[in-house]
Amino acid sequence: MVASEIGWLSEQPAPFRELVLDRCELRKMPVGQRLYSLGDPPGGIYGMVEGFADVLLASGPFPPQLVYIARAGWWVGEAAAVTASERRVEVRARTNVEILHLPARELQVIETLDTRTWRYFARLTVSHMDNALMLASTLVRGDVRSKIINTLIRLAGPIRTIDAETFVPCTQHELGEIAGLSRNSVGPCLKRLERDGLVSRRVYGQIGYNPVRLARSLAT
Known about the structure:
This protein is α+β, with helices and mostly antiparallel strands. About 40% of the residues lie in helices and about 20% in strands. The chain contains 8 helices and 11 strands. It has helices at about 15-20, 80-85, 105-115, 115-140, 145-155, 170-180, 185-195, 210-220; strands at about 25-30, 35, 45-50, 55, 65-70, 75, 90-95, 95-100, 165-170, 200, 205-210. Strands 1-8-3-6 form a 4-stranded antiparallel β-sheet. A hairpin with a 6-residue loop joins strand 10 and strand 11. Helix 4 (about 115-140) packs antiparallel against helix 5 (about 145-155), helix 5 crosses helix 6 (about 170-180) and helix 6 (about 170-180) crosses helix 7 (about 185-195). It starts with 13 loop residues before the first helix and ends with a helix.
């Protein structure tokens, strides 16, 4: 299963992976369905198996904004589940998705079977912090090219270190929103990246790229 091959769970010890997967429920969600919304009560933990999901964040008085597009191998929900606090983001299916759900009650069971459970979930929280820091770093960069490249690398998520072609189902406008750029500035830059062979837009609403090649281009 992809959940045990890429992403956070794949990086944990095999016995713990088995404990989690044995207690997960596989769910299917259609486009537009919410996994949960901002302010919802705590619940279980979720792992993407197939498809893509929007992640929206609202900070302070500002309205919700698209900050991430999650893909297979991405897990979420541990902060609310572990601290019994409200959900901090909204997660909504961008495409039809398959997702694993680990009910909150099963967390307690797993803890009794593996005393290092919370350390493993802390690693998941750290990965979300790394994502947030990458977003913050991208937003303060001055040039459009760096912002777009860093955003595409971040959107590769758990496969961003794999030297292979991938894609994100994202329009030019949405990429600008995530990168903190205007639509007018995104278009010309994407055309230049296309000309350089670093991105492709053969399918409307999709951006294809190799995250490792993009990362290398920043050093040149």
